[in-house]
Amino acid sequence: MSTPNGFRKLVISVMIPLMVASGVSTVPELAFAQTTTPDPAQPDTYSTPLKQPEYQRTNRYDKTDIPVQLLGINDLHGGLDTTGTAYIGSHPYPNTGTVGRLAAYLDQAQHQFKRVHHSKNTFRIEAGDMVGAAPADSSLLAHESTMHALRAMKFQIGTLGNHEFDRGLPEFNRILRGKAAPASADSLVKNYPNEPTKMKIVVSNVVNRSNGKVPFGYQPYMVRTIKAHGKTAKIGFIGLEIGSLTSITPAKNTAKYKILDEAQSIAKYDRILNKQGVKAVVVMAHTAVQTRDGKTTGPVVDILHKLNRIDPKNNVGLYVAAHSHQYANAMVGKTRVVQALFSGRAYDDAQAYVSPKTGKFVDLKAHVYPVLSAKADAKVKTVAKVAAIAKDADKRVGPKVNVIIGKAASSQPITDYHSNTKTMENQIGETVVDGQLYEANKAGGVKADFAMTNNGGVRADLTPNAQGQITWGAAMAVQPFGNILQVVEMTGQQIQDALNEQYSNPAFYLQIAGLKYTYTDNPGSQQHYKVLKMYKTDGTPLSLTTKYRVAINDYIHGGGDDFFAFKNTPVVGSIGSDSDVFVQYIKDMAAANHPLTAPKPDRKLYQATGTTVTVPAPTTVATK
């Protein structure tokens, strides 16, 4: 769990074995360097709130206190019609997702709450990255189709994620407000109807450098009133952007803004709310967390621990997290933390009471539920109005998306980061860099020795159709951002430095082509591993003093994702956008009668201390 370059901080582990359930590799465990906290709650084992025992009845608080429900999502990423397996706790739910199904389950949860509590105190909230890193039916329409879906699903309050900055915050504000597209926009965008989402944005830690105010009239917090038994109470909502935004987003899109400390920002506005008599606080934060095996890890844990140190009397009862695309449900101190995966595969349903006497949350419970497919749960009917938005978007972009550009060796997906090896290699990431290296070295090309890309720039499996054909839309789902590929000159020492930088921050890692290396443990250092030897694919060792040519995107060339070794290296030439290069590679392989095959993940070789590793035989990449 980034910017026009992809999900810059898909926060996943380095060198941690994959968990296996029913023979399917799950998302690798996060390797955050933060503290952990035990999860005293029971694992989320129920598929809907209709089956959740404590949600079926009122309790003693219902007679005196005010019930409230908070339905949350995070990291939708324009996933109007995408599906995939949702891992909630240790339970896999296949084929989850789509906005039509998500809308149905949000409605079901709200109706259940209203039936049990006779209450209309429900808020639908989101924690950022609603747009960006999205399929073509959102991205080709400037994500306005996604904003239409959010409006139809009646989301009321949201915050900013890093992807809201992908095309610049002014452009996000345009689609949020439903304003007309600029004259320079593509005809698909110009012809798409504009309408405001009616969703309010709160963000407490993004301010203009010029005046210190939150941009575009967004508010740092918001207060809403709830009612029951002839009494009222108030709830405060604080929004929070990821603190590392400027390091995971191109500088041009964040230059006007200052990003403030997360915990300090929560504390500031919690105190302001407290002075206003608001003592039930919800934080919607685009910050990462994961719960696994009874432990909860991630920056959220540190943020809340810091908050409790500097504001020990804070009233944050619920923290809706995001960014890492993981499942989370735990108590961190006195705060319930939840995260509901990504792309509409799940949602969280928190139910609580607020005391009209103290104004505080009492008896707050929260669970994460999958968005089941119609096949898995035929009783829940897809919301036709919302599904129609996705269908209309598909129709509009179909002529471009459905063009066949190539062929794969099979109909099976060439898999992404969700199927990383222990060494943080994945099939499609290495296919992408193989393509970049190939295209750089075509006749008339710039010529390169190696290619490297950051993990965030590769967004999805490459999924052929049943005949093994690859469409333009499938290729664009893998590389949707259009970063500019440059060939730069680097010494062997600079290349080694870049590879070592992977091991200082587990959020970021590289996919590599034309190159292999061995690495080992680096005890006692913040850099957890270190590179021992580097080789070309033919086994030739790299010299630390020799200069080589490396194809990289302009994002990491600027030091993005903390890859500072690439910064300011001299540019030899450009080979176009990464999106176009990947499409062309697929076309070239088809023309050469080389159907795409998943590469063997043998480019990063772990060597335990005191052992010897033999470099494998060369890996062949199809050439013209």
UniProtKB/TrEMBL annotation:
Entry keyword set: Hydrolase, Nucleotide-binding, Signal
Gene3D superfamilies documented for this protein: 3.60.21.10, 5'-Nucleotidase, C-terminal domain (3.90.780.10)
Domain 5'-Nucleotidase C-terminal: 419-567
Domain of life: Bacteria
Signal peptide residues on this chain, from the entry's feature table: 1-33
InterPro entries registered for this protein in UniProt: 5'-Nucleotdase_C, 5'-Nucleotdase_C_sf, 5'-Nucleotdase_CS, 5_nucleotidase/apyrase, Calcineurin-like_PHP, Metallo-depent_PP-like
Residues annotated as domain Calcineurin-like phosphoesterase: 71-327
Pfam families: 5_nucleotid_C, Metallophos
Similarity annotation: Belongs to the 5'-nucleotidase family.
PANTHER family on file: 5'-NUCLEOTIDASE, 5'-NUCLEOTIDASE-RELATED
Protein name (record): Bifunctional metallophosphatase/5'-nucleotidase
Source organism of this protein record: Levilactobacillus zymae
